Amino acid sequence: MKQAKIVIGLGFGDEGKGITTDFLASQNPESIIIRFSGGQQAAHTVMIDEKKHIHSSFASGALRGLPSYFSEHCTIHPVFLYNEQKELQSKGGNVQLCIHPLAKVTTPFDVWKNRTNTKNLEHGTCGKGIGATMKRNESQYKLFAVDLIAPKSMLIEKLKAIAYYYGFPEDNDLKEELDFFLDTIEKINWNIQDYSYLADYNNLIFEGSQGILLDMDHGVFPNVTYANTTSKNAMEICQKLEVKDIEIYYVTRSYATRHGNGWMGKEEELPLVNNHEETCIYNEYQKELRIGNLDYTLLNYSLKIDASYSLFAKKNLVITCLDQLDIDFQLNKINTEFQKVYGSYSPFSNNIKPLTDNSKQTELSIS
Fold it and tell me: Pairing mode, if any, of strands 97-99 and 68-70?
């Protein structure tokens, strides 16, 4: 019988979905990791012994040796993908990647639009073309993964039309962008397959992107991501594959974070320790990582939202960065009952202490 494990962030992203996915991969090495939202804006860090990789265009089981699958709900950027493929290969990771035919393709013109649109910059962007790609694909100027294996002359015409759609300058820059983009596409051995490709796998691990509080339907507009970051997409894929045995792993840090513009509740300085491996660092688009104490009302809000999509799924909680803040996580303030609660710590920490079971949770374990 097929089994599915779904990893979901409860906040604004950066909760620890990468290490949670890698943990599940280590327990289920025969699995395939499925990305079901977002795209190249993901930055999911995994450390295995001395090896470290930030997964973006590959799922977070790749460093451990598991294959990746990007669903129709994802975006891909061939240049970012190719660069990460080379890096991952140098670390001995698995670069086996299958992509759904209807996954959206980000072009250089989408990135240009994201980085030059004043309103978009005000609302918040990671500068990697995600929002522009998703919005463009609501128009007639669509570009899908399957188009990457179409005749080259056809692909060129579609790319020129997208440049025209954005008003990209028609000078030598256009030719240079097209030539470089097309050259990169030709370097990749594309494996474009629909969901029937997953039939050979009995264990599916679904890796979410960002968090429920950035969901396009449930976040505070306009500072949201152009994706469903709940379990909605993953549950729909499970339904198509007739998967009945489903577990969800909800992930939160021991404190609140937001990397980018928009409301996050109370933002405050916290005395963090053991966080020298933090990968959410300053960049010109998202600026500094913002932090604050957890709002348990928000955690319960996120869990209540996702319960609407995840009926009958078993539920687990993963609390990451437990050693970075000397405050106990208050499980008694969470209204959802979980099968298990997992705690995660820095691999360099000397401050590991068991979670205190001050709630109605059924089991506690440390990973």
Answer: parallel
Among 11, 7, 99, residue whose Cα is nearest residue 46: 7
Q: Please tell me the pTM assigned to this model.
A: 0.90
DSSP string, 137-204: TTSS---BGGGGGS-HHHHHHHHHHHHHHHT---SHHHHHHHHHHHHHHHHS---B--GGGGGG-SEE
Work out the burial of residue 172: count CB atoms within 10 Å of its CB; fewer than 13 is exposed, 13-18 middle, 19 or more buried: exposed
Token pair in block for residue 179: 């030539």
DSSP 80: H
Instruction: Region of 311 please: left (phi>0), alpha (psi -120 to 50) or beta.
Output: beta
In the block, tokens 């280590």 appear at 26
Helix-then-strand count for the chain, H and E? 9, 15
pLDDT digits (tens, 9 = 90+) for 233-269: 999 999 999 999 999 999 999 999 997 888 988 888 8
Q: Kindly list the structural domains of the chain, giving each domain's residue range(s) and its CATH number in brackets, ordered by start.
A: 3-99+193-366 (3.40.440.10), 105-187 (1.10.300)
- Is-contact 88 79, C-beta < 8 A? no
Give the CA-trace dihedral at 48, 54, 58, 63, to 10 degrees: -10
Classify residue 245 as exposed, middle or buried by CB count within 10 Å of its CB (0-12, 13-18, 19+): middle
Q: Give the DSSP H or E segment for 84.
A: helix 78-90
The angle, 0 to 180 degrees and rounded to 10, between the axes of the packed helices 108-116 and 172-187 is 130
Q: What is the β-pairing status of strands 51-55 and 44-48?
A: antiparallel
